[in-house]
Amino acid sequence: MTTLLAIIVVVLVAIAIWQMSKIFELSQVGADKSQIANDKDNKLNGYLMFAFLIFLYVFMIYSMWKWGSFLLGTPASEHGENYDLLLTISFILIFVVQFITQALLHYFAFKYRGEKGKKALFFADNTKLEMIWSVIPALTLAGLIIFGLFSWVNVTTITEDDDPIIVELYAQQFNWKARYAGTDNVLGKANVRLIDIAKANILGLDESDPYAADDKITTELHLPVGKKVVFKMRSQDVLHSAYMPHFRAQMNCVPGMITQFSFTPTVTTADMRLDDGIVEKVDGINKIRADKRAKGEDADPYEFDYLLLCNKICGQSHYNMQMKIIVETEEEYNEWLATQKTFASSMGLDEETKTDDTLAQVIVSDEEAEIMGVN
């Protein structure tokens, strides 16, 4: 397929160069005018424009019917339905405008085709028309932007009643780590300069910070259904992007700063595996893998899991930078979290007991937080 596409591109480039050379040749004084398009040529091109319009519409409708199900599935987060509604409205507007403008464009190309002794009707300017095609798109875009801003505020606003779980997503070429705040629900200070592989301090946590002692570092992301989760995101090396498509969530992970996103999972992994759309896709994948196994290739049966992906091209293994996400009941989540080692125990340190006064203190300023990577 790649070779075929490359050949098509080369052929199209060659045709474009050939046509440009003909245009240049005809523009020269004393050039042979026999190659200039006549009325018959223009009429043929007008009909070809209609033929291309029909092809464009048929291909677009077929693509939507054939592959439309791959765009979005059942949303697995609280804000997902609102996100899907905004996207659906945008698509409807784009398709309606595209259908109308493309039809007019190809119709005018036929109606006002070149004919000997005929001049096309044109307006040097028309204030009313310019007002219409400026104001209507502006109002439409303003509506979409305002809808999007309200949606963004609803997603990112965190209230005291939410009582969210705090999780850090740590990106590095080419894997993810998750760090859960301990019983205090406060992440300890961290900085890439504190990374010490020899001591297994792989995320650069500050060993002297009592808030870091009960943090838990994992290679799987477990989330309780129906509970708000606030993600604090860091990158060790280059720009990454934490992308969780089923939750309609994405946020860049930028070296030297902390970014944030939050959502509430609404569908457990077990329930999503029973979703009709997911079942259909899993069956399709397993059919392909069964065919591969029949040919002697190594292809294990596939089972659906939520995934955390990197949506920035961050290097040669970017495609494989992913982490499994498991959404489960709160009881199952608490049971799993209890089995994970704290930072203090993995480092052989003693967890310090924090008083209520200590918990209430603001340990660093915003400027210090940015420098130290404090969450």
If you had to describe this structure to a student in words, what would you say it looks like?
The protein is of the alpha+beta class and 375 residues long. The chain folds into two domains: 39-64 and 74-113 and 127-157; 160-372, Cupredoxins -  blue copper proteins (Immunoglobulin-like, Sandwich). The protein is built from eleven helices and ten strands. A five-stranded mixed beta sheet has the order 3-2-1-5-8, with no helix packed on it.
What is the share of helical residues?
A: 40-55%
pLDDT < 50 stretches: 353-375
Shape descriptor reads elongated
Largest sheet properties: 5 strands, mixed
Number of domains: 2
Can you name the CATH architecture of the largest domain? Sandwich
What structural category arises from helix and sheet content?
A: alpha+beta
Amino-to-carboxy terminus distance: 47 Å
CATH fold node name of the largest domain: Immunoglobulin-like
Q: Give the full name of the CATH homologous superfamily of the largest domain.
A: Cupredoxins -  blue copper proteins
Beta content comes to 5-15%
Number of helices: 11
Query: Strands of the largest sheet, in order across it?
Result: 3-2-1-5-8
Task: Note the run of SSEs as H and E.
Answer: HHHHEEHEEEEEEHHEEHHHH
| Count of beta strands | 10
Compute the CA-based radius of gyration: 29 Å
The CATH class designation of the largest domain is Mainly Beta
Task: Give the overall pLDDT as a whole number.
Answer: 84
